[in-house]
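Supplementary Note 3. Input sequence used for the single-chain structure prediction.
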Amino acid sequence: MITEDFLLKSDTAKELYASVKDLPIIDYHCHLSPKMIAEDYRFRDACDLFLGGDHYKWRQLRSFGIDEKYITGDADGREKWLRFAKAYPYMIGNPIYHWTALELKRYFGVDEPLSEDTAEEIWEKCGRLLASEGYGARGLILRSGVEVICTTDDPADSLEYHKALRESGFPVKVLPTFRPDRLLSIEKPDFTDYVKAASLDGLESVAAWIDEKTAFFHQNGCRLSDQALGYVPYAVGDADAALKKRLAGETLSREETDVYKTAVLSLLAKRYAELGWAMQIHIGALRNNNTEMFGRLGADTGFDSINDREVAENLSAFLDSLDKIDRLPKTILYNLNPKDNYVLASMIGNFQKGPQKGKLQFGSGWWFNDNISGMTAQLEALANLGVLGTFVGMLTDSRSFVSYTRHEYFRRIFCNLLGSWVEDGLYPRDTARLKEIAADVCYRNAKSYFGF
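The predicted structure, written as discrete structure tokens, is reproduced below.
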């Protein structure tokens, strides 16, 4: 199924893809474990590699009627793999079908589609290779052609594994990303414990802690932050009073919650601007919808979906509050709800500023949009309203060590889109220029934007 021309529908698309397919990968946002990389984790079997921690696949297995025992339960890896193989052919149209096929082909040389009939043979082949040299966590990264990995790390993290990797001489840069979600999530049950563990008792101490932790991250190579927001808050008020009220065990109003979040987001953004970091904001996830399963399995287990809150006015006010005092950092905005494609694609144009090309970015199709139609829609919205040639391109946003084929997926989709515009007479057949644009978006823009 995965042929040389997979997803490439024109000669122009094929020529462009050939020019970028071997470029290094800069994975500037992922959820790989730095501990697993530092310890060169060895995967037990195909289940451990392909299904472990992958809530994208877990959702589809539940939809196919597979019992939870064979998803996150105590069934052995082989039994879980056989259930996945049974469900897999029915995932027609789902990106998991393409991702899995690409992963099996690129890392294990498997061309035949996974199914009940081929499951045992593929299980055995993967097992033999996973037991061989070069198939640990580091080996898989090296096989993928990765140049830079940016993990996702809590501000309180010691970064010990990043340091160990740097000292080990591992040729791939594994850098931390500052992810202050627990500091921001004042409404969450564990917020008070988190803040008190850091000895924070007011907004002044929060600001000092942010300065201290960002300095430590910067010394360890961090050049990005990431904030996950179910909605975009914006409210002005007494954030210090709101924080102290919450630490006293009282319940905050929605207004007080937003006042605190706005103030801390502003402190963070100003600090990022000082350090020259890029600020990523992921908007629109409605998390942990199934309270029973959240209680059993915890977060990030496949029970999240798309939020439909409005985002434009608060986002505009937040960005403007920073821009008017010249403290708006490089910023990448991601939406989970595709209704907001044109909202974000137009929003970034309000706050661009030279000499930085594409200072504000409309981020790649994320999570539920990480598919052919979702990525194409994001690219088309950006092209229609912005300068597509300045886009920083793809990221994995994944916990999987074989998800780097998603960069191949993106490069094929992107080159096919460029090729279609040429074939339709919407852009001249300027092959040299097109190859420059393709290389920029697939690699060079990210390297320059983040200073890697």
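The domain at 43-135 is CATH 1.10.2020.10 (uronate isomerase, domain 2, chain A). Residues 254-275 form the longest helix (22 residues).
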